[in-house]
Specification:
Blueprint: H1 2-16, H2 20-24, E1 35-38, E2 49-52, H3 55-64, H4 75-82, H5 87-93, H6 101-114, H7 119-125, H8 133-138, H9 144-149
Antiparallel strand pairs: 1-2
Helix pairs in contact: 1-3
């Protein structure tokens, strides 16, 4: 069953463009119908963020709910994280030959070449901080709707 969980985790990487560890450690209370809310302590940047969920990602969350343990969507994969394993180790252990980290780079290339989305929207999709200094004092939107519109799914 862990092999299917690893495959679904990979699908979540593709559909959300989130980091693998963010998905692997995801918990049920973080998900609303079409938005995934990550607290600041769960992100690499230390900034809370909302991720719009396309229909395919929503279906995976719904599918994983009956398998949750202690509130986590991917409990079997959580144990690997507790052991300090890297995401590449997870792939090998689950019999996967592909590595999920390339999907985020592929998305960034695709959104650059195939859309007219502004730089800030593209980078926000990946969870990168783009508003710093004086800009951050005035720009308070997380560009959720613009990010939602820039998604291919």
């Amino acid at each position: 069953m862990a092999g299917r969980a690893a495959k679904r985790l990979g699908h979540c990487v593709i559909f959300t463009v989130a980091r693998t560890t963010e998905i692997r450690l995801s918990s049920v209370p973080e998900f609303e119908t079409d938005i995934w809310q990550l607290r600041s302590e769960r992100t690499n940047t230390g900034v809370a963020r909302r991720i719009p969920l396309v229909a395919e990602a929503q279906a995976i969350v719904k599918e994983r709910l009956p398998q949750e343990e202690n509130g986590f969507l991917f409990p079997r994969l959580l144990r690997l994280a507790d052991l300090g394993r890297r995401d590449g180790d997870l792939d090998e252990r689950e019999g996967q030959s592909a590595r999920p980290h390339g999907f985020r780079a592929s998305f960034r290339t695709w959104v650059e070449e195939q859309t007219d989305a502004p730089f800030e929207v593209k980078e926000s999709c990946l969870g990168h901080v783009v508003d710093t200094g004086g800009v951050s004092a005035y720009q308070r939107s997380d560009r959720l709707e613009k990010r939602r519109a820039s998604r291919p799914c």
